[in-house]
């Protein structure tokens, strides 16, 4: 069976002190790592410290984006080699905010996935539709296109260790959640894409999260669905209590 994975995405929130306080507050209360993978994707500035503060616990630390080159003249960027050098375990790739505000393309995301794997960083690959696309009935085509592009060129054994996050853009930070049925249907469609590109074993192994206004009140129903293996969570991951509640639900 697939182990659930709950990943907080702090975006551009929290001071340094607040970030450390959060890790201190949760790290002794985490459910066992046999049951759920607990991840926090923090602002890049705090990553080395948080990795150290959390080193004795089961909390994994992730980045929110990265470049695909290991080094070079890319002012302001952070490379996969740099993330690996401070022992970051995960990286969110292709978040809709990165796609929209920083022109992250499918092609760049594919290169970033390769770069993450080369450094043993688990990529959390985001996909999802706009409200217009949902209303036009093109959700499944959109996510199939994004996932096919992100996975181009990888072997089945590599894909098995990746995490995919289905995040309808209209549900991120809006308080609107996809119904558990709708979310499960799209996560199932993503799994079918992986099966078509690879095989049933790979499709069965890859973990697919739902993201979009996940909170303690709706996590249980979402996680009860066959194809939803966890959540990528923005707002509700900022407070230790609600983050722990999400983990306990898993
Ligand atoms: C996100 O940032 O990926 C997200 C899903 O945010 P929220 O949970 O706040 O909707």
Automatic annotation (TrEMBL):
Protein's name according to its UniProt entry: Triosephosphate isomerase
InterPro entries named in the record: Aldolase_TIM, TIM_sf, TrioseP_Isoase_bac/euk, Triosephosphate_isomerase, Triosephosphate_isomerase_AS
EC code(s) of this entry: 5.3.1.1
Spans traversing the lipid bilayer: none
Keyword list, A-Z: Cytoplasm, Gluconeogenesis, Glycolysis, Isomerase, Phosphoprotein
Matches recorded under Pfam families: TIM
Species lineage: Bacteria, Bacillati, Bacillota, Bacilli, Bacillales
Residues that hold substrate according to the record: 9-11, 173, 213, 234-235
Reaction catalysis annotation: D-glyceraldehyde 3-phosphate = dihydroxyacetone phosphate
Family under the similarity heading: Belongs to the triosephosphate isomerase family.
Residues at the catalytic site: 95, 167
Species in which this protein is naturally found: Lysinibacillus xylanilyticus
Gene assigned in the entry: tpiA
EC top class named in words: isomerase
Gene Ontology molecular function: triose-phosphate isomerase activity
NCBIfam families: tim (TIGR00419)
Modified residues (Phosphoserine): 213
Location in the cell: Cytoplasm
Involved pathway(s): Carbohydrate biosynthesis; gluconeogenesis; Carbohydrate degradation; glycolysis; D-glyceraldehyde 3-phosphate from glycerone phosphate: step 1/1
Subunit structure, as described in the record: Homodimer.
Role, per record: Involved in the gluconeogenesis. Catalyzes stereospecifically the conversion of dihydroxyacetone phosphate (DHAP) to D-glyceraldehyde-3-phosphate (G3P).
């Amino acid at each position: 069976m697939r182990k659930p994975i709950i990943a907080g995405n702090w975006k551009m929130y929290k001071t340094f002190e607040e970030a450390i306080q959060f890790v201190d507050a949760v790290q002794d209360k985490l459910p066992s790592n046999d049951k759920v993978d607990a991840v926090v994707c923090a602002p890049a500035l705090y990553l080395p410290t948080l990795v150290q503060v959390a080193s004795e616990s089961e909390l994994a630390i992730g980045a929110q984006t990265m470049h695909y080159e290991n080094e070079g003249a890319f002012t302001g960027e952070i490379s996969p080699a740099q993330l690996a050098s401070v022992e970051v375990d995960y990286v969110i790739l292709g978040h809709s905010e990165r796609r929209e505000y920083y022109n992250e393309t499918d092609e760049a995301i594919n290169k970033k996935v390769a770069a993450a794997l080369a450094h043993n960083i688990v990529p959390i690959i985001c996909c999802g539709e706009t409200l217009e696309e949902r209303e036009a009935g093109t959700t499944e085509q959109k996510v199939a296109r994004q996932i096919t592009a992100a996975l181009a060129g990888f072997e089945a054994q590599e894909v098995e260790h990746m995490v995919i996050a289905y995040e309808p853009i209209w549900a991120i930070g809006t308080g609107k959640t996809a119904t558990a049925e709708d979310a499960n249907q799209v996560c199932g469609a993503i799994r079918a894409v992986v099966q078509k590109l690879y095989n049933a074993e790979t499709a069965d192994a890859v973990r697919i999260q739902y993201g979009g206004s996940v909170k303690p009140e709706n996590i249980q129903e979402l996680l009860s669905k066959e194809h939803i293996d966890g959540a990528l969570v923005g707002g509700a991951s900022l407070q230790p209590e609600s983050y722990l509640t999400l983990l306990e639900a898993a």
